[in-house]
């Protein structure tokens, strides 16, 4: 993936050696524990606070695992987020995703991503049964904080419909696996945007401002003669 300015922050690779998975570093990645309507370790984020956006924790029941739901009745970006501090190394990030009536075609869909950056190889739209969405994450010397997001949409990208998530994980790996996959370099992401940077917000605001200006030009009254 190439960001504006030509900086590569994510690369698609072809076959390489296998890996050995380890302990899940996400807290409550199976969504089995929580208080009230919120699973432990996770919080809600939306771009716009709309009554048509409904986010729910479906507790484990009858042998079925816990599930997080994001349901947009109108265009919005909404996600469940957890920040996890990672030591230097390679990590495999994944979750199972199911979609119900996500509008298509669209420039975005359901995804597991780094929040605010919308980076994921998966962009599920329409109706899909449970499938695994995943990417690999490289963390350089000194470690870093990775905001893992499960939701619909990203900056400058919205959609309607419902997405369900279960079994989220972040696990360290010894090496990259065979096959094609996406590798995101967290250091390059942070060096481009800066940790805590407002760039994602600025990138989101730009198209909204452009649309507002275009609307004003189209709708403004003609000059009086």
List the secondary-structure elements in sequence, H or E.
EEEEEEEEEEEEEEEHH
Strand order within the widest beta sheet: 3-15-12-10-14-8-7
Number of domains: 1
Q: CATH superfamily, please?
A: Galactose-binding domain-like
- Helix % is 10-25%
Question: Tally of extended strands?
Answer: 15
Work out the radius of gyration. 19 Å
**Large-scale geometry:** globular
Mean pLDDT: 80
CATH class: Mainly Beta
Summed up, the helix count is 2
Uncertain regions spanning at least 5 consecutive residues:
1-21, 196-220
Counting helices, strands and paired strands, the structural category is: mainly beta
**Do you know the CATH architecture?**
Sandwich
Work out the strand percent. over 45%
CA-CA gap between termini = 52 Å
Structural commentary:
This protein has 225 residues and is mainly beta. The protein has a single domain, classed as Galactose-binding domain-like (Jelly Rolls), CATH 2.60.120.260. Helix content is 13%, strand content 46%. The strands form 4 sheets. Strands 3-15-12-10-14-8-7 form a 7-stranded mixed sheet. A 4-stranded antiparallel sheet has the order 6-9-13-11, with no helix packed on it. A hairpin with a 2-residue loop joins strand 4 (34-35) and strand 5 (38-39). It is globular. The termini are far apart. Residues 1-21 and 196-220 have low confidence and may be disordered.
């Amino acid at each position: 993936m190439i960001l504006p300015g030509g900086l590569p922050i994510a690369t698609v690779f072809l076959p390489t050696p296998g890996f050995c998975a380890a302990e899940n570093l996400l807290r409550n990645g199976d969504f089995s524990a929580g208080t009230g309507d919120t699973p432990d370790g996770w919080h809600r984020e939306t771009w716009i606070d709309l009554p048509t956006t409904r986010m729910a924790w479906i507790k484990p029941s009858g042998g079925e695992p816990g599930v997080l739901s994001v349901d947009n009745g109108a265009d919005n970006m909404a996600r469940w987020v957890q920040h996890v501090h990672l030591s230097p190394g390679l990590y495999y990030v994944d979750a199972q995703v199911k979609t119900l009536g996500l509008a298509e075609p669209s420039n975005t869909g359901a995804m597991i991503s780094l929040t605010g950056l919308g980076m994921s190889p998966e962009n599920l739209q329409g109706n899909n049964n449970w499938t695994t969405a995943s990417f690999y994450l490289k963390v350089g010397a000194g470690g870093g904080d990775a905001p893992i997001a499960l939701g619909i949409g990203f900056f400058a990208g919205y959609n309607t419909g419902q997405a369900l998530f279960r079994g989220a994980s972040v696990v360290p790996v010894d090496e990259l696996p065979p096959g094609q996959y996406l590798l995101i370099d967290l250091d390059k992401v942070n060096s481009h945007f800066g940790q805590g940077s407002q760039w994602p917000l600025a990138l989101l605001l730009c198209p909204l401002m452009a649309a507002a200006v275009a609307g004003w030009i189209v709708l403004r009254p003609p000059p009086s003669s």
